[in-house]
Amino acid sequence: MRDDICTIPVSEVFEENDGCPICRMRDTIEQRIITYILGDAMMEPDVRIETNKIGFCEMHYDKMLATRGRLQLSLMLQTHLDEINNEVFAKKLFNSYSKKGQKAAKISESCFICDKIEYGISRMIETIYRCYENEKDFRDLFNSQSQFCLPHYERLINGMNKKMSHYGSEFANNLSRITCDYSKSLYENITKYCALYDYRAEKGKMNDPEILNSVEDTVAFLSGKTNGK
Ligand SMILES: [Zn+2]
Ligand SMILES: [Zn+2]
């Protein structure tokens, strides 16, 4: 599979300032991979060998079902099933029930798209550390982000060890400041949201989008799922 599908220039991602930048990266990579495997990749034998073996997770089957390209999806499913029939259910010596169970579990637990996203994200996080360490413009871009979700905050802060010799503490301080400020603003908004249920609530606040969206925004912050927003 072409490497550039899983790669976006990090400065491009950080030039935007809406939601968690790592979530943005992930969503862009995911969309590109889905478009790719339901398009050009259909004819690429190396991709088909992998999708036949690995399959997809529930979420990505759903996303592919919601995408145009029924024929491409069905062709991919056809050869994936063929592989399962020949591998998991093979009438071979030593393919005991427990062996069949193990092979089925491996397929059920793996996802071609999740694997590629993980590959793309981990490389891009390395690039973020490197750019922060070496480029002032990127540091400014990073420091002016409005939010990071909690799972990506965790990933960025726990992965930085030893990779940033000069700007490590500046990176950690800014990342923590941005995430903490955002978490506090969510707390304020969700508190106001809860208060809307009080019969004495000010009617004017019912139209404030930050308050009205605070439940979805908090779930997105805690889970790192952007719900297509
Ligand atoms: Zn995120
Ligand atoms: Zn998946």
What can be said about this structure in brief?
With 229 residues, this protein is an all-alpha fold. It has two domains: 135 residues, no CATH class; 83 residues, no CATH class.
What structural category do the secondary elements indicate? mainly alpha
Order of helices and strands: HHHHHHHHHHHH
Ends distance = 28 Å
Question: What ligand molecules are bound, each kind once?
Answer: zinc ion
How does the SSE layout of this entry go?
Layout: H1 10-15, H2 21-37, H3 45-54, H4 58-65, H5 70-87, H6 97-109, H7 112-134, H8 136-143, H9 150-159, H10 168-195, H11 209-212, H12 214-223
Helix pairs in contact: 2-7, 3-5, 7-8, 9-10, 10-12
One zinc ion binds near residues 22, 23, 149 and 152.
General description of the model:
The structure is a single chain. The model has no long low-confidence stretch (mean pLDDT 90). The chain is globular and about 70 Å long. The chain has two domains: 1-135, no CATH class; 147-229, no CATH class. Helix 3 (45-54) packs across helix 5, helix 7 packs across helix 8 and helix 9 (150-159) runs antiparallel to helix 10. 68% of the residues lie in helices and 0% in strands. The protein has 229 residues and is mainly alpha-helical. One zinc ion is lined by residues 20, 22-23, 149, 152, 224.
